[in-house]
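User: Show me a protein chain along with its predicted structure.
Assistant: Here is one chain, sequence first, then structure tokens.
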Amino acid sequence: MPPDGIPEPGYPPRRVTAEPIGSCPVCRNRFRGKRHCPRCGADLARLMWLAVRAWQRRGENSGNSE
């Protein structure tokens, strides 16, 4: 892409797809409440911890909207 930010002709714009929430980032299998993904074996403990912590913080912030 040129410095002015305008895409060059002939190149389609890139699309960034969001991964489903609550799924393994490796194989996109849904969380099953287990530390390791049953499909690919990826360690999901840290990712699940981050999801829970984000949910808790959203709850903390929703009470301060006076």
